[in-house]
Every structure is written in C-alpha cells, then in structure tokens.
Amino acid sequence: MARPTPRPTDAELAILQVLWTRGPSTVRQVHDALSADRETGYTTTLKLMQIMAEKGLVLRDESARSHVYAASQARGETQRQLVDHLLDRAFGGSAAALVMQALSAHPASKEEIAEIQRLIDDYRKERAE
Amino acid sequence: MARPTPRPTDAELAILQVLWTRGPSTVRQVHDALSADRETGYTTTLKLMQIMAEKGLVLRDESARSHVYAASQARGETQRQLVDHLLDRAFGGSAAALVMQALSAHPASKEEIAEIQRLIDDYRKERAE
DNA sequence: TGACATCTACGAATTGATTCGTATAATCAG
DNA sequence: CTGATTATACGAATCAATTCGTAGATGTCA
To answer: Measuring CA to CA, which residue among A61, A40, A60 is closest to residue A52?
Structure first.
C-alpha cells in the first residue's frame, strides 16, 4: 500500500543521477550515459531500471516501444533521505558533526564557503523570527 | 598488502558505535549494548565481529578467553570516509549541497549553528593565509 | 520479403551481508 | 571431579544487489 520509496542503492543512484540531469530517458540513453564510467552490459541497466520501477524509484511510460523512465522523486528529496540515514547511523543525529566532516573531507571552494555562509545567515534569520 | 579498511556496513557501524563510546569491549558487552535496539542472537554479533576483524575494521586481543575488540579507526576517520562516499555518489562532490540537505533534514540547534559558523570562520582564516 | 538490429521480459548465477544452529573448548560452582 | 555456563569457530541458510544470457516481439532497410 504505497509504502515510501526505499533508499536507492549505489547502482540505482547512478541511474537516478542520469535521469535527474537528462530528464526522462530510455534505457538506451541511460546506459550510454553510464558507459563512460561503467562497463556493464545493456541488459544489466535494463534489469536495474525494471526493478527500480517495481520499487517505485522511477516511473515508466510504456506508450512507445522504447519505454521512457523518469525519477519519481526530486533529487533533493532523495538527497535528504540519504543524509538523514547517514546522520542517524553514523552521527547520532548531529548535523553539525556531519557538516564538519563534510568540510574536512572535501575542502570547499571559496564560492562554496560563501554559499554555506549564506545558508547559515538565512537559517539564523528564520530562527530569529 | 594492507589495503585500506573498507566502509563498514550498517550492522557493522552499529557495532563500531558501541566500541567508540565504550572503548575496547568483548562480544558479550557489545551484544548487550546492542540488545536494546536489536533482537538478534549472540552468535550473530560474534560472527559479525569476527568478520570485521578479518576486514581490519576492528582489532582483536585474544590474550583473555573472552577476546577484546577495539575499533581500528577513530570515529572521525570513519565518518569522513562515509561522508566522502555519499558526497561522491549523491552530491557530485559538492560539500555545500550536502550541508544544505543536512541542515534542512535535521534542523540544527542554535548551538550547532554557532559551531558551524565557527568552523567556517576557521576555514576562511586558513584560506586567507 | 528477409536479414539484421533493437527492445523487453525473464530466469539464473554470483556475490556480499546477515542470520543462526551446532560443535567444541574453557571456566566455574558445588 | 562433574554438570552447567559461557566462549569461540564454523558451516550453512536466507535475502538482496548485481550481473548477464537467451528468448521472443517489433522495427528497419536494402
């Protein structure tokens, strides 16, 4: 009964990335896009996308011979879900701890730091109201 | 040849959490600590910890009858590894995007925001040099 | 039309994570 | 010492993710 969409696995996430950036796509298009990094067969991508449709991670339009798939959730929605999970299982729910590790793991550029600063300012404003 | 320790799975991470907070512990101690949330048998915990020792995730002191296990990496080290992975597979390496999701997923407290602000200030200082 | 390409469906092998049962050894209580 | 308890070791079942091969339907084109 319409359970919430499960967290995508790594392979599934790679496919979602293509759908999010390209928009609705056929298996062929997704497979070609992934072929730069992956070296798996076409039917592997097909099977994964079929399973993702069963899970509700993607929607399938079967009106054309080549079915067209689209991500069922927005990128941000899925990202939030993944962050949430990581926060729970590894950071005891402390967003601050995660942010600290994120920054030390991948040194942010000047632009990114400015963006984060903007985020915090906004956040403080909301809190202040 | 001493390959880098692999990313821990969810079940392994739960065990590591106990080792990080309690310090070096026996299987019994870990299992009891986990029993609050888990309902798995003792031998399951044992087997997991044995596998973790093989993988290098934990170190085992066999001098006593009840072996004593300790996390092989500091909590922060593992956290960085996990954040790194998530950043790569879901955020295109953008720490700023991850920070944004982290904050919207789990609203941070005033104290946490102040802490993050401090981090950014430090970071800016380093950059300025 | 006939050969060839392309698509979906599907079964199945493989691998890794997780789980537990059972065997066996060490320890302890009385 | 003997029986009960508590350890470790280990084989094996289960389940999910990933991979691919093959079959059958559909479309293309010379």
So the answer is: A60
Residues in chain B: 129
Give the distance, in angstroms, between residue B47 CA and nucleotide D10 C1'.
10
Instruction: Tell me the chain A residues in contact with residue B100 when contact means C-beta distances shorter than 8 Å.
Output: 116, 119
Strand order, beta sheet including B58-61: B25-26, B68-71, B58-61
User: How many A×B Cβ pairs under 8 Å?
Assistant: 124
> What secondary structure does DSSP assign to A73-92, as a single string?
S-HHHHHHHHHHHHHHHHST
Mark yes or no for CB contact B87/A95 under 8 Å. Answer: no
pLDDT in tens, A40-98: 999 999 999 999 999 999 999 999 999 999 999 999 999 999 999 999 999 998 888 89
Closest CA to the C1' of C27: that residue is: B65
Confidence (pTM): 0.90
Task: Kindly determine whether the C-beta of residue A110 is less than 7 Å away from any atom of nucleic acid strand D.
Answer: no
Phi, psi of B124 (to 5 degrees): -65, -40
